[in-house]
Amino acid sequence: MSTALPVLTAGDFASDQDIRWCPGCGDYSILAQMKKMLPDLGLPLEQIVFISGIGCSSRFPYYMNTYGVHSIHGRAPAVATGLRVARPDLKVFVITGDGDSLSIGGNHFIHLLRRNVNLTLVLFNNRIYGLTKGQYSPTSPEGQVTKSTPMGAVDHPLNPLTIALGAEASFIARSVDSNIKHLAATLYRAAQHRGTSVVEVYQNCNVFNDGAFSYAQDKATRDETTLELEHGKPLIFGKNRDKGIRLNGLRPEVVDLTSGVSHDDLLFHDEKADSTLVHLLAKMRYPKFPEPIGVFRDIEIPVFEDEVRGQIDAAIAKRGKGDLNKLFNSGDTWQVG
Amino acid sequence: MSTETPQADTAKQVQVVSGITVRLAGDSGDGMQLLGTQLTNTSALAGNDVATFPDFPAEIRAPRGTRAGVSGFQVQFAAHEVHTPGDTLDALIAMNPAALVTNINDLRHGGLLIVNEDSFEDKDLKLAALATNPLEEPWVEKYRLAKVPMTKLTRKAVESLGLGVKETDRCRNFFAMGMVYWLYGRDMDATLRFIHAKFSKTPEVEEANVRALRAGWAFGETTELFGSSYQVEAASLPAGTYRNIMGNQAMAWGLMTAAHLSGKEMFYGSYPITPASDILHELCKYKNFGVCTVQAEDEIAAVCATIGAAYGGAMGVTTSSGPGIALKAEAMGLAVMIELPLLVIDVQRGGPSTGLPTKTEQADLLQLLFGRNGEAPVPVLAARSPGDCFATAVEAWRIATQFMIPVVILSDGYIANGSEPWAIPDVSKLEPIKISHPTEKNGEKFLPYARDNNLARPWAIPGTPGLMHRVGGLEKQDGTGNVSYDAANHEKMIHIRAQKVANVARVIPPQEVSGPSEGELLVLSWGGTYGACHTAVQTALSAGRSVAHCHLRHMNPFPSNLGQIIGNYDSVLIPELNLGQLRMLIRAKYLVDAIGYNRVQGKPFSVGELVEKINELTTETPKEQFQSRAG
Fold first, then answer.
1. Contact A67/B304, CB-based, under 8 Å?
2. How far apart are alpha carbons B581 and B587 in whole angstroms?
3. At CA B326, angle to CA B321 and CA B328, rounded to 5?
4. Shortest CA distance from A104: residue in chain B
5. pLDDT band for position B7 (50/70/90)?
6. What is the biggest distance separating any 2 CA atoms in chain A, rounded to whole angstroms?
7. Shortest CB distance from A83 goes to which of B309, B465, B468?
């Protein structure tokens, strides 16, 4: 049908700006997978807008040959909400980090999700403040020693996915910067979702927090430490796919599939499931559990801008398009002269 | 529904007066604001010029009967032009002892004092922290006291309807209204229509209020308490169709008109805050005009959402009051940097911090001019009266789009909640606001920071092929808009952004002066103090003083002839409801030793205090050279 649309390649999405992330930064991989994935959406460059806040990840829009706004710290969800309501024809991505989204912008993050604005938010989680050179972040584990926590962080970290779930996000996913195929596929799924899709990406900051997610990144260990979620399939992991997750009451437990436990005994993944079940998955943490990656949740609920604009359409249908002269002269008026 | 009210029916003597100032005071649950609004509308419909001053506590329902809970509404209606709600009261209607003692000082000697006699029991006195009944004090004799058993009379008027005591007593304000209407020869029709529209779902309540209103009118007619009623003839306003309008309403309508004139959809992002919320409430009603309102999660989100909408090509508007503006500061800086048109409206209230939410003040001027990090100038306009909010909103959007810049509008609690007659404009005769979005590249590559003669950059919007570009808060390279840390470029861009704001002075009309073009004193004012300053100067002029009045709408940049005007007077008086913010700017810019008259009591100036100050600074007989020009 859309024969007029030129076929784009990853290269078409690159802007002419030099990329200024540190060599070896996980951001490069996310940028590459994004550019690789975007042509599959079949959208022209001018229909796409990247909006970011502040932080290393938030430089992302400058490197994309699309429209973009590098806004202020934590506020990208608000900027994107205004843009989507004003221009529902545009495809919008929000690029953010753990500090940007969960600390200074926590409020906007949850309100974006409860409104279910139709956009994709990619949360680069590196568990550190990189751009300000190495302070602990809201996802840094307790006890982490950083420049601002020489005796170890005392705050309990936030889990981006349980926060998203608490705000009733309609699409929740997780991937890993180095797991490039999985990352590209996850971004694509997120971009296909109608509503707010949140993708947490484990991203390595090799300068200030190197190896924070090495267990999930390392090819040698990742099959044992992560679990790829597949809709309608049992939760199985391990290099030999010999371990699974079973529910014991409301507690998940790791079971050995070689000792007589059948697949039918395992927990089956359901992207449409009640949030309680998704919560159990989001709470599974290494080393006690493999950490699930992939799509945790994908449900359809009303989209904010549809509702906002729907009210405008309904008002026009009911009362006709407004006439200012009529409005100003309505009610009690009087003549002079 | 019809009524047999009018003036001719009354058997008593009618005194013709040129103007009346009335204050209605009662508990915040007593419906004083409703009563005041009705009296205002009715007086405006009678052709009077009107000016109002609603004054209410920040608490929704402060404890009943206490001084803290007193809510008041003052209105001046006159057969001549009025610009203030009046200094001293001709009549005070006090529904309880607390309302009496907190307002009595504003009633002129010999003025009419009407009280609800039924609410001066011991318990009522105790609630008002009074040891003795003020109605028995000797000072009451300075006034013409009318003790009316409003509660009893209202109950009697509606008793056959079988309403409960609570519902019955709620009708008391309509009884008081009927009495006031009789006193001032007001027509009840508009209020009867209002009652019908408001209570049509509960016919017995509608009927009770109608009966109370009529009973109040009949009481005025028959009681011996009032010797005469008063008549205020219609004022001779310029020809046209008028309606009564409140400041926040005029602001909302001005914004809608600006959107219409520019062919834009309005995106309005806001967070509730007193006294700006009524703009949100008003705009929400007009979705069929294509107004898109979003109540954001906070002030920051409200302004950021409008920035997003503006990037998409919409008319972005956000409103707030001082505390919310403080939160928006960083985002306003972003809008300065990415050079998008945006309107930020501050309905000022008493500060600092939470301050006096329901009281007026002009202390945010410097915050709006300078309250951002870095050199981040924006044009700032200030509305001078309720109706003027309309024209100010339209002009602000014209400037914002012509110069690609966020523009600030200052209003204040006084004009936001006040009302006045407004000459309804014909929208089809207003000048369109021309906006263009480029569709073609302006160079080999698209240059998002190329400049036109005003130094405005092109407003290229997403969806336009070939013009993809990124904007952001990091310093921009001149022309390309790419991120640049170059020292010389940064300084150049700072100058460009400053010059762009300065260029606005090219398109704003020259500053006007009312009164003689030179003389002993220039009164220089801005914003919501217009009415008091104008009236004070007129009063002093007619007494032969050498004084003129210059009222600013454009706070940044100043009109280009302002310095010249200032130079034509021996001295300059700047009255402000702050500690001298405009004065600081005028002194800095024009090196003139301007004198301040500053009050920060949460209420507007009285005309009297300004006249006194003008008299202090001028001579009784002006120097010969100014004599012919005075008066």
1. no
2. 10
3. 90
4. B300
5. very low
6. 99
7. B309
Q: How many CA atoms lie less than 13 Å away from A60 in the CB half-sphere?
A: 30
* pTM of the complete model beyond 0.90: yes
Instruction: List Cβ neighbours of B111 (8 Å cut-off, separation of 6 or more).
Output: B88, B89, B90, B91, B92, B143, B144
Residue of B nearest to A59 (CA): B472
Show the 3-state SS of B405-441: CEEEEEEEHHHHHCEEEEECCCHHHCCCCCCCCCCCC
- Nearest chain A residue to B427, by CA: A325
Place of tokens 């997750």: A245
Out of B47, B313, B464, closest to residue A334 by CB: B47
Q: How confident is the model at residue B627 (pLDDT cuts 50, 70, 90)?
A: low
pLDDT (tens digit per residue) in B306-362: 999 999 999 999 999 999 999 999 999 999 999 999 999 999 999 999 999 999 999
Element (H, E) at B363: none
Is 50 exceeded by the pLDDT of residue B100? Answer: yes
Q: Is A78 helix (H, G, I), strand (E, B) or coil?
A: helix
Taking CB atoms and an 8 Å limit, are A324 and B256 in contact across chains? yes
Q: Which of A257-266, A304-313, B368-377 has the lowest mean pLDDT?
A: A257-266
* Banded pLDDT at B631 (limits 50, 70, 90): very low
Contact, A128 vs B350, CB < 8 A? no
Kindly state whether A8 is in contact with chain B, defined as any CB-CB distance less than 8 angstroms: no
The ipTM of this complex is 0.97
The rounded distance, in Å, linking the Cα atoms of A229 and B516 is: 82
B contacts of A70 (beta carbons < 8 Å): 470-474
Report the side by side order of strands in the sheet with B380-382.
Answer: B292-295, B266-270, B315-320, B342-348, B406-412, B380-382, B554-556
Q: Mutation target for A interface from B304, B389, B437, B485: give the one with most A CBs within 10 A.
A: B304
Cβ-defined contact of A69 to B470 (cutoff 8 Å): yes
Q: Which residue of B has its CA nearest to A337?
A: B239
* Residues B312/B244, Cβ–Cβ less than 8 Å: no
Q: Give the residue from A336, A256, A322 showing the smallest Cα distance to B243.
A: A336
